[in-house]
Amino acid sequence: MKETSAWSINGFLGLLLFVIGAGAGVLLLTQEYIVSGIVLIVVGIIFVSNITAVQPNEASVINFFGSYKGTIRKSGLWLIIPFSTRKKISLRVRNFNSVKLKVNDIEGNPIEIAAVVVFKVVDTYKALFDVDSYEKFVEIQSETALRHVASKYPYDRFDSDGYSLRGNADEVAAELSLELQHRLSVAGVEVIESRLTHLAYSTEIASAMLQRQQASAILSARQTIVDGAVGMVQMAIARLEAEGLQLDEERKAAMINNLLVAIVSDRSASPVINTGTLY
């Protein structure tokens, strides 16, 4: 079952009926028409007791002896079905900040992760009657979805293509939002956005993983430097041969060695001037 609109009329009409009924009842009492006067006063009280005020971005769910009769979403003063009960529910956009969860990524490394979920109620019937407490439901399902998504990716990735929690935060957040929407639709909740607010290695492996990150970064940088150095050496030899300077294999090897050492070294090279010959 889904949310439907409840029967209602302008609440100020209910106030007018109360004033008319109560006034006529008092008038009849003064004229000793006791039964008729009491009936009119009771009818007026019934009218005024079934007036409900609905605030902006708020809904009032109407129940009549355990039967759902609909929801009033429009703000204002409304007269509803007599003897019915109403339950107010907020339609405002809200945030849920998860606690820091300790989970294992796809490589088995323990990490700490947290997220914020922005949501609002879009179906008041499902929010009130399909789950026990929709706010508690959002909390538990958000943490469950976060654990599931975090376990599908590595914390970081240096040596291969693919998503990682640290390097692809937007993609991970989008997947988290989709999974949350699938889980929370049963509670009549719409997920507007979700974002990771905390991501770190657990304290017991943080130092070791930092060293690993540094080593991987150094290795990646060295590979880039070597690739560039080889290209520069090839360009230098090709330029010399284009100018008509022919080098034998031994001189080429010596030149390549010197250029690679000068380019790849992480310190400034100290040149050695050779005034003799290689032979």
Report the radius of gyration as a whole number of Å: 38 Å
Question: What's the total number of strands?
Answer: 10
Please state roughly what percent of the residues sit in beta strands, choosing from under 5%, 5-15%, 15-25%, 25-35%, 35-45% or over 45%.
Answer: 15-25%
- Estimate percent helicity: 40-55%
Instruction: State the major sheet.
Output: 4 strands, antiparallel
CATH class of the largest domain reads Alpha Beta
Distance between the termini: 95 Å
Report on this model:
The chain crosses the membrane at residues 7-27, 33-54. Keywords: Membrane, Transmembrane, Transmembrane helix. Residues 49-213 form the Band domain. InterPro entries: Band_7, Band_7/SPFH_dom_sf. Helices cover 47% and strands 22% of the residues. It has helices spanning 11-30, 34-49, 124-130, 134-150, 169-184, 203-242, 249-264; strands at 9-10, 51-54, 58-64, 67-72, 76-79, 85-90, 94-97, 101-104, 110-121, 189-201. The strands form three sheets. Strands 7, 8, 9 and 10 form a four-stranded antiparallel β-sheet that branches. Strands 1-5-2 form a three-stranded antiparallel β-sheet. The longest helix has 40 residues, at 203-242.
Topology:
Layout: E1 9-10, H1 11-30, H2 34-49, E2 51-54, E3 58-64, E4 67-72, E5 76-79, E6 85-90, E7 94-97, E8 101-104, E9 110-121, H3 124-130, H4 134-150, H5 169-184, E10 189-201, H6 203-242, H7 249-264
Helix pairs in contact: 1-2, 4-5, 6-7
